[in-house]
Write a structure and sequence with these properties.
single chain; 513 residues; alpha/beta; Ribosomal Protein S5, domain 2; Rossmann fold; 2 domains; 4-stranded mixed sheet; 19 strands; binds zinc ion
């Protein structure tokens, strides 16, 4: 007699289904688990044994083998405990075989039989639905999260005793109403109306949001770089169903608490400059895949304040997600891609002492120090930043004005994105993804097939001929010019849009490339 059920293991942001098969064989009494990573076997067996005994069930008196399939990779983590326990119970006739067959169970067992929450429940629910599993059994603490996904019976259990009673038919399955907890909850995002003055910067945020452009801001400490960056998510469109599910699933897989339904606001992640490469980028750590800030910022904003202070390996490693929208992790037996389509915003002081803007009279840095500081961001990252802003302190006159609120600006952004989306509906990026925003467009394609009007073309040519912009610089100008024309509601960028786009390249202080 073989008992079969399903479990799942989180790898990166996705859950892989594991078939749990238990069979009685001849030999000395005992339970053997096959297919787990070596060290995890004993720990799991001890938890399952104690939990079974403390739930009034019996630990097998025969020889029992639990196989976790496919056996080709070693599973880690405690999420399989529940499936292993159920499978042993069914194989030893303590619950009917049919009660576990079409289930996928995830949860860590406490020694007392309590069922503890695990990360990645949404990913497991997606995998279960894809496999056509009928019932998903999860820790009670994760039930609302699992129930975000329609198309499954979700049961939340707090104790193994509860699960045993349901499997024996002595109590109804503790079903969670699917979809019942979908409250379209909005994280409170700070409003643009809090930012006084800073016309150019507010305009640059609007352009960044409309065209999906990465943005850099150079300015003295305290000029409001963080204040501005935090307001970008509020300008981005609400996440659609697919993006919201992706973002919520990522947060769930990272072990974050999911409250109030699907995440509808674009995420905002701001790792500190002392953060390790793996915590920013993600990657393999101790045989597991760790999700980094770039993945948590998927479909949203990654903000690096004091960017030149970050570990050089972080800045270097950002190149891959910026170019391809994903982070590839290749380790011994792990090969996964973590999604990371981000809006990058970096901020920096003008120089190490922070006072080297404008006339820079108080700056105490040597020219060498300034060059070295600026050069940390050079190359591949800066190359992908279309908008480069130099922030000045607002004047007293600026401070008197009533700034536009986020809702008004976000409406213009939405209209501009609609225009761009319509134009790019048949285009794909070099990596095969759909082009959604102007910043996704490959430079040479844009130049060849979507040039500005003749007057705009003339401005761009003149700048290129005179050496004022490089070829790549011209591509960046053209992408931004398209966004300006989308915001203005005109068919094609002209002289004004190209000229304004050129002014948004932050030429000062050797930061432009
Ligand atoms: Zn300085």
């Amino acid at each position: 007699m073989v008992a079969r059920t399903h479990g799942a293991v989180l790898v990166g942001v996705d859950a892989r289904i594991v078939d749990v098969e238990t069979d009685v064989s001849s030999g000395l009494p005992g339970v053997t688990i096959v297919g787990l990573a070596e060290r995890a076997v004993n720990e799991s067996r001890e938890r399952v044994r104690a939990a079974l005994v403390n739930s009034g069930a019996e630990w097998p008196k025969t020889r029992v083998t639990v196989a976790l399939l496919p056996a080709s990779w070693h599973k880690r983590g405690s999420s399989l405990d529940l499936g292993i326990a159920a499978s042993i119970l069914a194989d030893t006739d303590q619950v009917p075989l049919s009660a576990v067959r079409d289930c996928l169970m995830i949860g860590e067992l406490g020694l007392d039989g309590s069922i503890r929450s695990v990360p990645g429940v949404i990913a497991a629910a997606l995998a279960a639905r894809e496999r056509g599993v009928d019932r998903l059994v999860v820790p009670a603490a994760n039930a609302a999260e699992a129930a975000l996904l329609p198309g499954l019976h979700v049961s939340g259990v707090a104790h193994l005793r509860e699960l045993i009673a349901a499997m024996r038919g002595e109590a109804p399955w503790p079903d969670h109403e699917v979809g019942g907890s979908v409250v379209h909850h909005q994280r409170a995002v700070p409003d643009l109306s809090d930012v006084r003055g800073q016309h150019q910067a507010r305009r640059a945020l609007e352009i960044a949001a409309a065209g999906g452009h990465h943005l850099s801001m150079i300015g003295t400490p305290g000029v409001g770089k963080t204040l501005l960056a935090e307001r970008l998510p509020g300008l981005l469109p609400e996440l659609d169903d697919e993006a919201a599910l992706e973002v919520t699933a990522i947060a769930s897989s990272a072990g974050r608490r999911i409250e109030g339904g699907l995440v509808r606001v674009a995420p905002f992640e701001a790792p500190h400059h002392t953060a390790s490469p793996v915590s920013v980028i993600g990657g393999g750590q101790g045989g597991r895949v760790r999700i980094g800030a770039v993945t948590l910022a998927h479909h949203g904003v990654l903000f690096l304040d004091e960017a030149p202070e970050f570990d050089a390996r972080v800045l270097e490693a950002l190149r891959q997600p910026i170019e391809s929208g994903r982070v590839e992790v290749h380790r011994a037996d792990i090969n996964v891609a973590l999604p990371a389509r981000i809006h990058l915003v970096i901020a920096a002081n003008p120089c190490p002492c922070g006072r080297g803007l404008g006339r820079g009279r108080d700056c105490s840095c040597s020219p060498m120090q300034r060059r070295r500081y600026a050069s940390r961001l050079s190359g591949p990252i800066l190359d992908r930043i279309d908008l480069r802003l130099i922030l000045e302190r607002p004047s007293v006159a600026d401070l008197g004005e009533e700034p536009e609120p986020t809702s008004v600006v976000a409406e213009r952004v939405r209209a501009a994105r609609d225009r761009a989306g319509h134009r790019w509906r048949a285009e794909r990026t070099l990596h095969g993804d759909l082009v959604r925003v102007n910043a996704d467009m490959h430079g040479p394609t844009l130049r060849r097939r979507f040039p500005p009007d003749p007057a705009g073309q003339q401005v761009l040519h003149a700048a290129f001929e005179s050496g004022a912009v490089t070829m790549r610089g011209a591509d960046r100008v053209l992408r931004v010019a398209w966004t300006l024309s989308d915001l203005a509601g005109i068919a094609r960028p002209g002289r004004d849009e190209v000229g304004y786009a050129m002014s948004l390249r932050g030429e000062a202080q050797g930061w432009a490339a």
